[in-house]
């Protein structure tokens, strides 16, 4: 983080400022309109808990670039590692002349991910690419084809991962036909499930669907986010993940945990599935893995990971040496700076503030999440009916007041908070003050 970047919210122009407006005009004439932006401002510097724009405005960052900059936007170890690697070489392609950084990242992933079984890893570029490769590995291992994903799931924007993603707009609408042999099962959604549907019952419900409409004999893999991301930060009830995983083990089905958004200390454990004591067969990681550089991975049981034939996995840029250097520095930062515990501290602070806000405002229908992955589901007063318009209004008000917050959810009614673990308590509290004021303004 630049020593000159002051850690305080500071608005010196209206939002957006004149320079951001100029750049937005250029964007509209140069960038495909399908690439949208949440904020109307252009960043010039970022670090700690602050993003500074080209007009000199400083925003409190409660989004982390969608859970990417967990260690901060310019963590010192990451900056130093990247600089050193750039000076050495930027690319050779691991499949042509391999390099130690790729192997070291694989070793770190094999050590850090749940379970003490023999593991292997393969590196890629994006979360969607890693999910696709996890499915390829599962199909090679089981010699079966079908894949089950869940209600409210988000797994990416490629053809296969669009098929696995639940929400049509904006991710899938008009982009079909999609990959076949993808099925959707009901999720455990504690806020919206019937009161008698606990985790075990929700698992039985999903398994019944899978057995009747897909069949274990046809099913290569079940893919699930231990805590859903774009679908609304839904935390399945206790026992749901374990029930699904046990059924997979008994039926030669690969259990794939998509930890793209929830991994790397984000939830107060290194990986979210650890909260439920679940050891996945394969685990998919990306986002927070490399401090902002593009890197993703599939890590899993050696016999599964080795099922694909030689050269069946890979890609020109997969495990780029600069991204690998960043990943090793990110992991060192998480471990050396105690960021798993920091995520737990953030959870306590945020849940306390949001529950107090909820006690005075029934439009906060549900407050949920783990670690620094917290959400509020917003509903119409006196009901559980989703209120996406109010959600958008709250987010917009926060943006204009200098706080970056994101929305998500199948119904578009979830405010999600993904602060960098490098943020101070003071900035975090101030950001939540702004959110609370936005609710009052929109009473």
Average pLDDT figure: 97
Shape, per Cα inertia axes: globular
The major sheet is characterized as:
7 strands, mixed
Low-pLDDT residue intervals, each spanning 5 or more residues:
none
Superfamily (CATH H level) name of the largest domain: Type I PLP-dependent aspartate aminotransferase-like (Major domain)
Order of helices and strands: HEEEHHHEHEHEHEHEEEHHHEEHEEEH
**Percent of sequence in beta strands:** 15-25%
Pfam families: Aminotran_3
Organism: Aeromicrobium ginsengisoli
GO molecular function, one term: 5-aminovalerate transaminase activity
GO biological process, one term: gamma-aminobutyric acid metabolic process
Question: Secondary structure elements and their pairing?
Answer:
Layout lengths: L17 H13 L12 E5 L2 E4 L4 E4 L2 H4 L8 H13 L11 H13 L6 E6 L2 H16 L3 E5 L8 H6 L17 E4 L13 H15 L5 E6 L15 H11 L3 E5 L23 E4 L10 E6 H4 L15 H16 L2 H22 L3 E7 L2 E6 L9 H13 L2 E2 L1 E3 L5 E4 L7 H17 L2
Parallel strand pairs: 3-13, 5-6, 5-7, 7-8, 8-9
Antiparallel strand pairs: 1-2, 2-3, 4-10, 9-10, 11-12, 12-15, 14-15
